Amino acid sequence: MVVILGLDVSKSSVSACLLNEKPKDPRQFYYECPFRCFSANARGIQELLALKPDIALLEPTGNNYSKLWGTHLARAGVEVRLVGHKELRNYRANQLALPDKDDDADALALACYYFDYHAEPRRFVQIRDQAIVKIRELVLRLAHLNRVQSPIINRARQDLAWQFPEVAHVRSLRGESGLAPLLWGWLAGERKSTRYDRLYAQTAGLGITDTVRQHAKRICNLQCEEHAIEQELRQLLADSRFEPYCQVFKKFGFGDRLSSVLISQIYPIEGFLDADGKPEVRIRQGRNSKKPTKRHLSLRRFQKALGAAPSLVASGDSKKTKVIGGSDLCRKALWQWVYTRIEPRRSRLKNDIGQHLGSQMDAEKAAGRPAKLVRNRIAAKAARLLFRELVKNLT
């Protein structure tokens, strides 16, 4: 008999529901079930493991909350499965008809979900291996550092506009060796520059304050942390398993950051394919044409994972497409890649991929279509090309 544990994770505790079989009337069982609550401390984890479940089901609530519980369960030999937020919400409300949305209801729904869908792997969120989990964690940390830096740099530049206006808008970048950007390093007293010394001696500004120097030190520290993370990502991407993926990424001109973001979402590519390791294509009747139409299901799942799958939203006479679901991080990273490597002709890739996407972008912009729409279309087209290149290279 399999012991199933439904676990709803909160900030400092979890609500647990232990089942041996699915209740005949989940709605009534909700009022009778002896739900357990465990605190996020050593005692709470010991009490949870003492339940000795075979399989635990959680929602993927990020690195900060579910990681603690999922890691301890996995170390104890418990199989951990993740259920998507949208899937659980629909299942709880539509199939179980549970009265309220609370932690206990979610725990019960998670446990019941296993009994209905345990034989359908695609009903569960893909569980990544150790290297992918680490890459994902580092990618999210880089995104966080980028968000933290922007307001500090903007504030420093605004102050420099009246303190040292000659350098207020200088674009200073970190070197490959990890040295702090020259401007911020000079302002923080960590690097020397005769050029900035000379400019400051003749400045029209009112003088650099300690506040700006403190901002510069913060920027240098953040840049140093970024460099360390990038080095670690480079080492992780050197794994032989990722070599075929990186070969394809080079054709698209993806840097280490974008490659890391993509790997964290799409590895292994076999997760998008059918049981024979081939792209899943089905023939279905077209909704409007009523004719047999090919549905590229694997490609659609791949685009969805990257946040580049437009969905039709129709109401009455209004029809429009909108990107729903998928990774916001991937969507943003692909958009930035289009903006920097495809749209500017001087930076465009000098291969078939760059020329194909670039010519489509030029044609759509010349037709007067909005720039945002064009970039989204090119990103979606790039995702389709990427899938086909990966399948060709890996299968």
Summarize the amount of helix as a percent range: 40-55%
Low-confidence residue ranges: none
Strand content: 5-15%
Overall pLDDT confidence: 89
- The total beta strand count reads 9
Order of helices and strands: EEHEHEHEHHHHHHHHEEHEEHHH
* Major sheet size, sense and barrel closure: 5 strands, mixed
Strand order in the sheet with the most strands: 3-2-1-4-5
What Rg do the Cα atoms give?
26 Å
Please give a structural write-up.
It is a single chain. With 395 residues, the chain is of the alpha/beta class. It has 3 domains: 4-123, Nucleotidyltransferase, domain 5, CATH 3.30.420; 131-237, Helix Hairpins, CATH 1.10.287; 244-394, no CATH class. The chain contains 15 helices and 9 strands. The strands form 3 sheets. It has a 5-stranded mixed β-sheet. A two-stranded antiparallel ribbon has the order 6-7. β8 and β9 form a beta hairpin. The radius of gyration is 26 Å and the shape is globular. The chain starts with a strand and ends with a helix. The mean pLDDT is 89.
List the helices and strands and how they pair.
Layout (H helix, E strand, L loop, with lengths): L3 E6 L3 E7 L6 H7 L3 E4 L2 H8 L5 E4 L3 H14 L3 E4 L2 H11 L7 H15 L12 H34 L18 H6 L6 H8 L8 H28 L5 H9 L4 H11 L14 E5 L6 E5 H9 L4 E6 L2 E6 L4 H15 L9 H15 L4 H24 L1
Parallel strand pairs: 1-4, 4-5
Antiparallel strand pairs: 1-2, 2-3, 6-7, 8-9
Helix pairs in contact: 4-5, 6-9, 6-11, 9-11, 10-15, 11-13, 13-15, 14-15
Write a concise synopsis of the structure shown:
This protein has 395 residues and is an alpha/beta fold. The chain contains 15 helices and nine strands. The chain has three domains: 4-123, Ribonuclease H-like superfamily/Ribonuclease H (Nucleotidyltransferase, domain 5, 2-Layer Sandwich), CATH 3.30.420; 131-237, Helix Hairpins; 244-394, no CATH class.
